Amino acid sequence: MIKESIYHVDNAAWRKVVPAGDYLMETVKKGQVVRILDMEGNQAADTIFYNAADPSERYSAFNTIREQGNIYLSAGTRLLSNDGNLMLDIIADTCGRHDTLGGACATESNTVRYALEKKCMHACRDSWLLALAENPQYGMDKRDIPENINFFMNVPVTPEGGLTFEDGISDAGKYVELQAHMDIIILVSNCPQLNNPCNAYNPTPVEILVWDGAVAA
Amino acid sequence: MNDSQSILYQDCIPGGAHWSMLMRRGTQLRLTDVEGGANLAMLFYNPLNLLERYNAPDTLKCQHTFKLTAGHCLYSDMGRIFCSIIEDSLGWHDTVSGDTDDAMIEKKWGRRSYQECGNDWTLSGRHSFLVEAGKYGLGKRDLMGNVNWFSKVTVDGDGGMTFVPDHSKAGASVVLRFEMDTLVLLHTCPHPLNPASSYPVKPVNYQISKAAPVTEDDLCRNSRPENGRGFENNRLYHLGL
Description:
The structure holds 2 protein chains of 2 kinds.
Chain A: E1 14-18, E2 23-28, E3 33-38, E4 45-51, H1 61-68, E5 78-80, E6 86-93, H2 107-113, H3 124-134, E7 149-151, E8 174-180, E9 184-190, E10 206-211
Antiparallel strand pairs in A: 1-10, 2-9, 3-8, 3-10, 4-7, 4-9, 5-6, 6-8
Chain B: E1 7-13, E2 18-23, E3 27-33, E4 40-46, E5 49-53, H1 56-62, E6 73-75, E7 81-88, H2 102-109, H3 114-117, H4 125-134, E8 147-149, E9 153-155, E10 161-163, E11 173-178, E12 182-187, E13 204-210, H5 219-222, H6 225-238
Antiparallel strand pairs in B: 1-13, 2-12, 3-11, 3-13, 4-5, 4-8, 4-12, 6-7, 7-11, 9-10
């Protein structure tokens, strides 16, 4: 479902550009609104959310899709944790569909998906492992990387049980916006995938914008 | 019955129970739904590096599938294959619906205390996995998306998910051949989307036997080019690379 934001960029509390292949790990307060902006189009933003007060509580892909009865994320979707609690909900979305089945790219899975000699190409799991290593204040390590959301990705399932990867449905300037229902750590890997035609083999930057929830247009 | 089918061990896991075991490379595990309507949830870890674990998204996207059936391999997050599905009488097993927690169990089927019901109390899948995981130093942070053997969830054109009741009949079975040593956590608590009016208590029988060697024309290795590369990753791993 396409739903435009009510927030204006001039009123953002903070905004950061995440270059292709880089990560962002920041705290978002309860009530704040976070927008992920696809700056140049067809980029995948691989994202995990944690409860800032207890990071062992984190986004659960499968709790989320099961409890909403639908595999796709869009405006109106409630993102649930592994403890079954509401973490954030999607309050605006100009893309229309986001994936939570496909997981993240890893150097190891690249060898299986594409070719054995692809193993030294940078991947989202690398970015996350670096993020966790460079942010020891959270006390997290590899076991804290669960199934994630791929914002701006389209991974349809057929009634016969097939899984397909469609060309990107996003475009320059499209965004998704979420409101936090608890203090959240947001961890984004701006996907560096060079083997998937979804981004035309050209990873591009995304921007993260955060508003204090009460500040509208 | 040839040597590869000789049963080394077999047992029955009652409904609503949990267990864990180390499956050795080169053995196979036959799971049988004794009464019909069973759900057997599983998680997989590398016993030599518990940080290597089952990855449902990698398993699905590497094989362009949403369901698990014969010919499919179950991947770790390290690009290796824990086990291959060499036989399946059902054609569809779920790995995207996750697990039950205590709140869901109570909402659907009410809370039954241990004092009232003894070993027939109604455990949640999450508690079951936490107990088994704890035996190996693992905890909540280590629980990933699990397999739900014998359960089927379909998706329509709009992404809507539907649980298929009565999918698994008595005697239905699936056979997993282990391609590396694997720590297996399992429980027989109900599927989280099971609409049954009372908590389903469904036992699952398991048999362990020696697997036949993987041949060049193996179904799982050849079902997709990706699986050929997965098997090569396992070969390199067993060389110590």
